[in-house]
Amino acid sequence: MDKFIIRPAREADFSAISTLVRSTKINPTGLKWQRFIIAESSVGKMISCGQIKTHLDGSAEIASIAVQPEDRGQGMARVIIEKLMLNASRPLYLMCRFELGKLYEKFGFYAIQTKDMPPYFRRISCLASLVDLLAREGTTLLVMRCD
């Protein structure tokens, strides 16, 4: 891996952020470049990105963690997650596919039940359950919290 820097996203980064998030099949809603940080290679290529979203109910979510396919497996998601968590308020929430739960446990996140979710996550979780049932995707949405 080349050397890289972590920096706040700029408006000019939005297209690359959107493309990367969509290519990884992450929920593309709520993408605002002002909330993102990116890892950028020494030649100016975006390697990875992530954001902290604040919802109307006041909950904060770590979201849109994405890494370029050719840069995966080198710890770039970890770098973005750690940097985002550094100054994020607590509790901090996230939503992920069930199979990614173990990854986020390494950062202090734990799965929570619907009754313990803030209103935003409760709505999304219920909606996702319905969509999964209809699509028969076989994957489950996991909502996690870090205190």
Give an account of the 3D structure.
The protein has 147 residues and is an alpha+beta fold. It has one domain: 3-Layer(aba) Sandwich (Aminopeptidase), CATH 3.40.630. The protein is 29% helix and 29% strand. The protein has a 7-stranded mixed beta sheet with strand order 1-2-3-4-5-7-6, sandwiched between helices. Strand 4 (60-67), helix 2 and strand 5 (92-97) form a beta-alpha-beta unit. The protein is globular, with a radius of gyration of 15 Å. The mean pLDDT is 90.
Fill in the keyword field for this structure.
147 residues, alpha+beta, Aminopeptidase, seven-stranded mixed β-sheet, 4 helices, 29% helix
Supply Rg. Answer: 15 Å
Task: List the secondary-structure elements in sequence, H or E.
Answer: EHEEEHEHEHE
Detail the poorly predicted runs: none
Name of the level-1 CATH class: Alpha Beta
Can you give the mean pLDDT?
90
CATH superfamily: Gcn5-related N-acetyltransferase (GNAT)
In helices, the fraction of residues equals 25-40%
CATH topology: Aminopeptidase
- Counting DSSP E segments of at least 2 residues, the number of strands comes to 7
**Order of neighbouring strands in the sheet with most strands:** 1-2-3-4-5-7-6
Strand content: 25-35%
Annotation field: number of helices: 4
How widely separated are the two ends? Answer: 32 Å
Largest sheet: 7 strands, mixed
Could you give a quick summary of the protein structure above?
It contains four helices and seven strands; from the N terminus they run βαβββαβαβαβ. With 147 residues, the chain is an alpha+beta fold. Strands 1-2-3-4-5-7-6 form a seven-stranded mixed sheet, sandwiched between helices.
